[in-house]
Amino acid sequence: MIRTIIYGLIIFFTGIPLFASDYNVKTYGATGDGKTIDSPAINKAIDAVAEAGGGTVYFPAGTYLCFSIRLKSHIGLYLDHGAVILAANPTDHEGGYDPAEPNQWDMYQDHGHSHWQNSLIWGEGLEDISITGPGRIYGKGLQRWDTEKAGEGNKAIALKNCRNVTIRDITMQTCGHFCILPTGVDNFIIDNLRIDTNRDAINIDCCQNVCISNCVVNTPNDDAIVLKSSYALGYPRITENVMITNCLVSGYDENTMLNGTFQKTQIKAPDGGGVTGRIKLGTESNGGFKNITITNCTFDHCRGLALETVDGGILEDITISNITMHDITNVPIFLRLGRRMRAPEGMAIGKMRRIIISNIIVNNANPEYGSLIVGIPGHHIEDVKLSNIQILVKGGAPKEYMDMEVPELEDGYPDPRFFGKIPAYGFFIRHVNGIEFNNVEVRFMEEDFRPAFVLDDVQNAGFNNVKTQKAQDSPTFLLKNVKNFKANQCNSVPDINLDSVDQKKL
To answer: In this structure, how many other beta carbons lie within 10 angstroms of the beta carbon of residue 461?
Structure first.
């Protein structure tokens, strides 16, 4: 605080930065009064720093009402305590956000993923940039849906084809369609953010060498932390070498994470599903995903973990560990290989393989859903291992659920709710080759007449030390078209080795 006061006095009276590399936005005409559009003055400061070869653009305490802020290379924005960058609403103030640039590939992903310049803060083709400090970005004037209307913006921070980027310590609130949308950004660190917003929070698209750590993210109406690999750059680019660690994601009522009340009155998102707030890979998945680690994360009052590749990309070499989930509004674990093929003509169906999920606790999961691990006919998910997992579902499903037919939805949008009611309270597994469960326990709070596991068109399945609950006369396993099934030391089933079975209840 003392540094800030001294710094501000020196800048105010002399107009000279305290350090050669620091430039106070008020020196360049920013008012910080929350009424005057300050983005022209801020962009003037950024230009001055760029001309000097780089440095820090400093925001002292104040509310800076802004349209588009245009980043440049070798520049950091530092938001001090009490500093707020407030997104202006073009219907209330003269001016508007930069127009969305043309993108001939925008038919292969949502409008918001196809454009970057219609944003509060944006940069393209940059290197060595940062946005840091204990201040806040408040996207009050941003649109939460895709928009093509002149002057409107729908993203807080959007970056395209950049490298060596850091976003650290800031708070983000109500930031439109995306809080942070990097596309083709490499060597990217996101650390210690607090985000409470009305749509997506962090969407990592076509990026490589990324670390997301120590973030608290509340997104009741869309996803919290998502990896994607769209066609927005005009070619399929893989998202790889990504670590997500020490994060909390949730679906509390909007803004109640930041105000500390953690309200849970909202139970549905605008799409009709349960509140969102999850960690996900997909949906956009042209380029695919590889070498991804997710560890030490907590889910509360939100959807579960989702891994999806449906547009032709591979999804492989994934490790997920040390996850706790509470009050899960749909599927705790969702793995989906599909053929939506939102991609140029000729793209082949993707692959999903070599996935390890371990040390997971799920409590109070929605009774309508079981976890889903589903490929499509002729395209199997491969080599999945699940270990040291405890899942407690609400239960209560009647016997009729056991006979529910689960649609294939080969070319549909990969959302668990479209599969309908699931005939397993634990795991529904279909079109899979190579799956192993070790030290897994699935239980229910209220008696549930579905089996714990349903396997359909599955090869090479092993269950070791698996513990389940079951209602009277209900099976633990329902097997259809299964080859090479083994069960060892499972509490309700004797050790068994089946080479092939058309249909069997165990």
So the answer is: 24
For residue 81, CA distances in Å to 2, 62, 65, 121, 136 come to 12, 9, 17, 19, 8
Query: Is residue 232 within 8 Å of residue 243, measured between CB atoms?
Result: no
What architecture (CATH level 2) is domain 2-350+376-417?
Answer: 3 Solenoid (2.160)
What are the residue boundaries of the structural domains of the chain, listed by start? Answer: 2-350+376-417
Burial of 119-143, coded b for 16+ CB within 10 Å and e otherwise, reads bbbbbbebeebbbbbebbbbbebbb
Instruction: Judge whether 500 and 479 are in contact, CB under 8 Å.
Output: no
Q: Give the length of the chain.
A: 506
Q: Which residues of 45-62 are buried (b: 16+ CB within 10 A; e: fewer)?
A: bbeebbeeeebbbbbbbb
Pull the structure tokens for residue 418: 């479209």
Whole-prediction pTM: 0.94
Can you tell me the distance from the alpha carbon of 176 to that of 145, in angstroms, rounded to the nearest whole number? 7
Q: How far apart are CA 246 and CA 320, in angstroms?
A: 12
pLDDT in tens, 6-57: 555 544 444 444 444 579 999 999 999 999 999 999 999 999 999 999 999 9
Q: How far apart are CA 260 and CA 241, in angstroms?
A: 34
DSSP readout, 122-147? EEES-EEEEEESS-EEE-TTS-SS--
Distance of alpha carbon 375 from alpha carbon 354, whole angstroms: 14
Q: Which residues contact 387 (CB under 8 A, 6 or more apart)?
A: 356, 357, 358, 359, 437, 438, 439, 440
Q: What is the dihedral of CA 145, 148, 149, 155, to 10 degrees?
A: 50
Hey, CA dihedral for 222, 223, 226, 229, is it positive or negative? negative
CB atoms within 10 A of CB 282: 25
Degrees (nearest 5) of the Cα angle 232, 238, 243? 115
SS3 of 149, please?
A: coil
Question: Tokens representing 227?
Answer: 């990896």
Beta bridge partners of 183: 160, 205
User: Residue 328 corresponds to which amino acid?
Assistant: I
**387: amino acid identity, one letter:** S
**Maximum separation of any 2 CA atoms in the chain, in Å:** 84
pLDDT in tens, 139-184: 999 999 888 788 999 999 999 999 999 999 999 999 999 999 999 9
